[in-house]
# Entry
Amino acid sequence: MINPLTTEVQYNKSGQKIVSPDYLLFEAPREKFFMTGSEAVKEAVKRASVDASVSYPITPQSEAAHLIGELWVEGYVGVYFRGESEFGVMSEVAGCALAGARTITTTSGPGTLRAFENFPMWAGTRIPVQLVLMARGVNSPLSIQPDNLEVGFLLDTGCMIWYAENAQDLFDMILAGFVVAEKPAVHVPVITVVDGFFVSHTREAVMLPPDDIALPPYDPKKAPMPVIDLEVPPGRFLRDPFVMKSNYISYATHASWQFEVRAAIERSRPYAKHYLRGLIEEFGNPDADIVFVAAGTAASQSKEAVRLLKDEHGIDAKVVKLKTIRPFPYEELRSAVKNAKYIFVPEFNVVGWMEREVRRYLYKHSDAEIIGAPRVAGGMTMPAEVIVEEVLDYLKVR
Amino acid sequence: MSFKVFQINEEFLDVMPKEIVDLQENATWGNPKRGVMDLPFHKELIEEHSLCAGCPEAAALRYIMASIPNPEDTVIVNSTGCTSLVFPHIAMHTVHSLFGNQNAVASGIKRVLEYRYPDKVKDVIVLAGDGATIDIGLDCTLQSFFRQEKITTICFDNEVYANTGGQESGATPKGHVFKMAPKGKQFEKVPMWQLAIDSGCKYVARLTVSSPKRVESVIKKAVYVAREVGPTYVHLYTPCILEIGLNSDQGLEEMRSKDKERFAFFEYISPEAEEVINRKKAEGLL
# Structure
């Protein structure tokens, strides 16, 4: 970026040229690389002027955490170490962010739940930490297979939840995630979800901008809450005064703060819309009355199902891919399904949290039948043919 | 750091409680020789704090607040419990996040402050009770010692979970009857000061807060050593007079009796710490 006072080009601590988020995400020339989702995390962090990262091993996110460590060795990340557990790590990154650092960490499956108490704390202290969650099964018996049940637990922690479909999405979302989460009007954590293994461990083509440019560094002085670096006023008291007394003022204080955190998520919409090029993406025939609503790799499989339905059965269908779950893109979804007769919600978990969300936001806004299927869990893949069969069975065309 | 950071906005001065204004006007920032002898003339904690009348923890907090060598550039990280209730009433940066993660949060703060301000002294002090330090937070506490985080950890040991109504803790002596130990505690008091030494702390002290001057000396040593060498640990007996059935004027007597027992003064100084302490003594700061 050019300093308007001196017209000098500015560089970050790693010596990369600072460019605007718009330039980095939309305008810079891109080149094609073949890489895994974990490697895409490294490439994003490398261009994000990240100050701090703390890691803990758990499959399938460990590789991404290793690669962030390599960036630390190479001088692209300021602070990096392995914490004692996911609970410790999420606490350590909270400390890093409270002290004014742009902070990122990664976790998966059971680690998410071990760390859980921290996520509402992050949101309540309004720190813009980015968690890259490589979703994986959580319940006993132990499994390392992909499944996104844990996302259902995270929905109401007060963090933004974005969902990447593939390595390209993940790269772009990590960069956009910092930009949106750090807007003074927003300033809440962002959890960037991607399906473990399906994306983290598979290689695909990713278009990358050059690695000698980077996002403008985080400026904690713009945070709506005072940064704990002993440099920025006000600096006298506990940043979150206790409201444990039993009286109506403290009830109101606590409740209004919870609303404020959720309002901050709502205020992220216009920024997310800009940097993610919309909160949803549509694929297929726009006028089709069969609609799949999905996120992540469930959206990829649905896209393939749309193609099969058209090519093999002459049936028109479309996919509405949700890029953000918090904020939930309800206006975009309502508009996208206004011609729908059947809404299928394919997802990779047992409980069907996405179906619940879709029903909740379409209640009284759509007359379509909402079908929470197909649904797989425990690591099973969701072949496009299974989605097609679900549709054919439901329509009784066979 | 500018001391202006700590000044109350002029437009608010007439609506702020007098005690809060006193915290600003009578504080002793900017003087590394400050200490407990300033307490009669200066103010570190408001009188109407939320601890019980006669609570030894309130006395401990005053002594610590008066002894911190660099309060204007010190962050205190605390944990859930009686201490967290009193932190809104002091004039320092404090952070409370969850129950038991204080040493982890402090690790992140300390490392980032060192990264962002490599040429400035910024101390990070953890202050939490025995439940937070020795039970629920033991993992985070010991691991911060293993990692050699340059932070000072102070444990207010009242040998009981007092804030939640008197449950036995890891620091309760064997045999004491408390709620959740209706037949008396089944295992020995956890020797946290020894665990701290074994886990890599460079300076460790165990004492009661019956002697303000001794508390001052220990806190200053712990902060100076942590700043230069590595983790330090201070274990203070701050009895909960409410839970052990004493009157508000009996806290000091209780601590003096324990000065000769399980809280007899004990100090561990590593060779690296000794070098720092001797230098600070020569500089007139200890």
Notes: Chain A has a mean pLDDT of 95.
